[in-house]
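U., I forgot to send this yesterday:
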Amino acid sequence: PFTQGHQTGVYDSPVPGTLLKYWKHQRTGDEFVFDLQADPAEHRNLAAELPAPQLQALRRAVLDQAAGLVQ
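Result:
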C-alpha cells in the first residue's frame, strides 16, 4: 500500500507476469489501474476494463489501509 499526497493505492499481482497498480485520488474520487509490466509509464488506465469483483477488491484494500488495518 502507498499514500502520496492525495493519492492512496495498492499493488496487486493477480496472475503471474502482471503487476497492477491501483490508486484513487482522494479529492476527486478518480480511480486508476495500470499494469506496470505491460505499461510501466502508466499511459493506459484499466479501471473501466477490470471485472467488478477485482476492482472492488482493490478498493477494499485501499479502505483497509486508510482504516489502519493494513500496514
